[in-house]
TrEMBL record:
Keyword entries, A-Z: Membrane, Metal-binding, Oxidoreductase, Transmembrane, Transmembrane helix
Record field: catalytic activity: 4 Cu(+) + O2 + 4 H(+) = 4 Cu(2+) + 2 H2O
SUPFAM superfamilies cross-referenced by the UniProt entry: Cupredoxins
Family from the record: Belongs to the multicopper oxidase family.
Sequence intervals crossing the membrane: 26-48
PROSITE patterns membership: MULTICOPPER_OXIDASE2, TAT
Keyword Cytoplasm part of the UniProt annotation: no
Classification via Gene3D superfamilies: Cupredoxins - blue copper proteins (2.60.40.420)
Family annotation (InterPro entries): Cu-oxidase-like_N, Cu-oxidase_C, Cu-oxidase_fam, Cu_oxidase_Cu_BS, Cupredoxin, TAT_signal
Highest rank taxon of the organism: Bacteria
Name of this protein: Multicopper oxidase CueO
Length: 504
């Protein structure tokens, strides 16, 4: 199967050739398109506000891929405990310029956690940001009280300690803040990290899994910053002049640097996360060759699938493998997510093989995906809209818990939702709690990798998707899951609703 997606439009379209690469500097014209006011997002994040114009030494990037640390847990009585501290720091978001940033256990991004299916995890997360925060486990199927939504907000100086059983099978998740009105500000400053869920499936045993050796996390971001390095996150910031749109790979600017990775194994597995606040990242090879995609947001595809591009909206993940004979350069094509943003094609990583092993053939089957028969599913419509300066879901502005629309359902309910985009803006629809299958994309039946499991999916301006899901395992009459646009500014401007799963 081949799944081909047009990578990008406009100046960024360039499919081949690592040499003579177009590198954009600026995309004008998108400023403030249909965007609301700052609203709740205007609450200032004390330690992160304001630029930091300190010029760092004009050292070139090392040109070597940085792999986030693996966070060691301590296991006792069947529970693995992890410790995270959200803190402020500095990072060169723009090469040679020090920006005020934030990270978990460091100054930018966070360590990778590995969870194992069936284990119980406990996280002790301390907030030293000088502002309220939460930590949401994006894509994890966990109780709503542990989900890290706005109701789990905790203050500076406090420690939040969620604990839950890992019910997810092998997949790539991530963690990031999700407090009301400040998600964009906190995420763009660097609060994001990857979670790898491992299981004992045959596919997991057959695929590369040695972290940092043949199992490589790739966190891509396209940010917005002014020349002093001040990172922007709302419409007021985007209206400023002299902005640039730096592209980062694992926290390193790749605007004019191609990072290198020496592969000591012939087969390398990549887990790619688009942690951008808004922009779409399309991954492709510089030589026009194929990537062997093995997973979407929510785990394995039924079979390894040859693709030429992988299009990731904000918040989405995918996994692919490469069997390397020669060096391969990976490119990210940045497409603006209809918030003023970036564009262009970036050679972000060259993978050079120094390996002599010969891997076995990939398994012909990775997992079984039983497609939902939605004939008896309850139907619901979720309308993504806009009201003056705010964004809405089903007509409600979700900037407060009381003001947002609330979807009420019951345990084991089977539903098919039509996500209808009533705006001309791009949106990235994300549902907490359970994975969904795509039933239709703009009226067409899905094919190829779109037959996998998702938690985040593109809804183009004026378009719609139809998705199916089943609300298993967890109920709560107080804590709610969220559904929202993962363009973080839209989320903060109200494109968020609550989901309550009640006992039947
Ligand atoms: Cu949106």
């Amino acid at each position: 199967m081949t799944h081909t997606t047009e990578p990008a439009s406009g100046a960024g379209r360039q499919r081949k050739g690592g040499k003579g690469l177009h590198r954009r500097k600026f995309l004008g014209g998108m400023a403030g398109v249909g965007l609301g006011a700052v609203g709740a997002a205007g609450a200032t994040f004390s330690l992160l506000s304001g630029g930091n114009a300190n010029k760092a030494a004009a050292a070139d990037a090392t040109g070597t891929l940085t792999v986030p640390d693996l966070l060691e847990g301590t296991t006792s009585d069947g529970t693995t405990t992890y410790t995270l501290t959200a803190k402020t720091g500095t990072n060169e978001v723009i090469s040679g310029v020090s920006s005020t940033t934030a990270g978990y256990n460091g100054s930018y991004l966070g360590p990778t956690m590995k969870w194992t299916t069936g284990d119980t995890v406990l996280l002790n997360i301390t907030n030293t940001l000088g502002a309220d925060t939460t930590v949401h486990f994006h894509g994890a199927h966990i109780p709503p009280k542990m989900d890290g939504g706005p109701q789990n907000s905790f203050a500076d100086g406090e420690t939040w300690s969620p604990t839950f059983e890992v019910k997810d099978e092998a997949k790539t998740l991530w963690y990031h803040p999700h407090a009301l009105g400040t998600t964009a500000e906190q995420v763009v400053h660097g609060l994001a990290g990857m979670i790898i869920v491992e299981d004992d499936s045959d596919a997991s045993a057959a695929l590369p899994s040695e972290y940092g050796v043949d199992d490589i996390p790739i966190i891509l971001q396209c940010l917005a910053a002014d020349s002093s390095g001040d990172i922007k996150y709302n419409v007021t910031g985007y209206l400023g002049s002299g902005l640039s749109y730096p592209v980062l790979c694992n926290g390193t600017n790749v605007d004019s640097t191609t990072l290198g990775f020496t592969a000591t194994k012939t087969r390398i597995r990549f887990r790619v996360l688009n942690a951008s606040p808004a922009d779409i990242m399309t991954i492709q090879r510089g030589d026009g060759g194929t990537l062997t995609q093995i997973a979407t947001d929510q785990g394995y595809l039924t079979e390894p699938t040859e693709v030429t591009t992988i299009r990731l909206v904000a918040g989405a993940r995918a996994e692919f493998v490469l069997d390397l004979a020669d060096a391969v350069t990976l490119q990210a094509v940045v497409t603006t997510g209809w918030i003023r943003g970036g564009s262009g094609t970036y050679d972000f990583l060259t993978v050079t093989p120094e390996a002599t092993d010969t891997p076995d053939d990939l398994p012909s089957t990775l997992t079984t995906i039983t497609r939902y028969d939605t004939a008896d599913f309850a139907a619901r419509t979720i309308t993504l809209g806009q009201s003056g300066q705010n964004m809405t879901i089903n007509g409600s502005v979700g900037t407060t818990m009381d003001g947002m629309a609330t979807i009420m359902t019951t345990l084991d309910a089977e539903e098919v939702w039509t996500i209808s985009n009533g705006t001309q803006l791009e949106h990235s629809f994300h549902l907490h709690d359970v994975p969904f299958q795509l039933i239709e994309i703009n009226g067409e039946e899905p094919t190829g990798v779109d037959l996998g499991w998702f938690d985040t999916f593109e809804v183009v301006g004026g378009g719609s998707i139809k998705i199916a899901m089943k609300f298993t395992d967890f109920t709560d009459d107080t804590y709610m899951y969220m559904l929202h646009c993962h363009l973080l500014q839209h989320e903060d401007e109200g494109m968020m609703a609550a989901l309550m799963v009640m006992d039947g």
